[in-house]
Amino acid sequence: MNEPNNNLGNNIETLSTNSTTNESIQNQSVTSNVPPTINQPEILQPQQQATNNQTPPKKGGNFKYILAFIFLIAILAFVFFLPEISMYVESKKQNTGSTGTSTKEIENGILTCSFEKDSDETNTYYEIDFKFTNKKLITSNLVTTIESTNETYLATKKAACDMASATSLDVTGINTSCSLSLGILTISESYTHKDIDKSAMSKYVEASGTAPEFNYQKNIYDIKTKMEKSGYDCSISSQVE
Question: For the purposes of burial, counting CB atoms within 10 Å of the CB of 16, is it exposed (0-12), middle (13-18) or buried (19 or more)?
């Protein structure tokens, strides 16, 4: 009787072992070929949130700087041209009547300016007539009227006027006269500006005379402006022949 074939059993056991091993390897291979599960939304979510949280750039930033620069230039230009603007406005005021409408400048006429100064004992009234042609000064006449209850004061002013009147005889272009009556002293000083001897003017002023403030052919509207700034009330009328 033959003995059992041990080699056959061993071979069967070996085959079984190999089969199990191959199956395990195949399972591992299949498992390793399956890509791992990726929760993509969870990975992308922080990036998306960061993108959403970004502050959008503000619009118009450069425009504000440009506007501020233009505003600064405008202010500097206004300050630079302020004197010219003031002169223009003053000129418009001179040529504007009480109704606010522009009026034509008078070429030939008389500019009359007056001023009054009062005190307890004395009232002094000044009136100046400037005669002009083509808006240029030709002659002027200053009349000073002093009314006072102080007779000594009036006598002193009359004596000074008489001295100026006598001196004016030696000064070309000036004629002075005085009169005192019933507590009122009237002093009249007439100037022909073209003929005034300026070299003798200091002598006349020292004798209590009044030197003319404006020169021959001075623009009459410039005179009006200056007199009004000094407190005088002025008006212009056409020359009546």
Answer: exposed
Owning domain of residue 179: 106-238
Enumerate helices (H) and strands (E) in the chain, giving the number of each: 7, 6
Please say whether the beta carbons of 204 and 190 come within 8 A.
no
What pTM, to 2 d.p., does this model score?
0.58
pLDDT digits (tens, 9 = 90+) for 42-74: 444 555 554 555 555 555 567 778 888 888 888
As for how many domains the chain has, the answer is 1
| Confidence at 20, pLDDT banded by 50, 70, 90 | low
DSSP state letter for 100: S
Cβ proximity of 128 and 113 under 8 Å = yes
Q: Is residue 97 part of a domain?
A: no
Q: What is the CATH number of the domain that holds 171?
A: 3.30.1830.10
Looking at the DSSP assignment, which residues form a beta bridge with residue 187?
144, 178
Asked if residue 126 belongs to a domain, the reply is yes
What tokens appear for 147 in the block? 């009314």
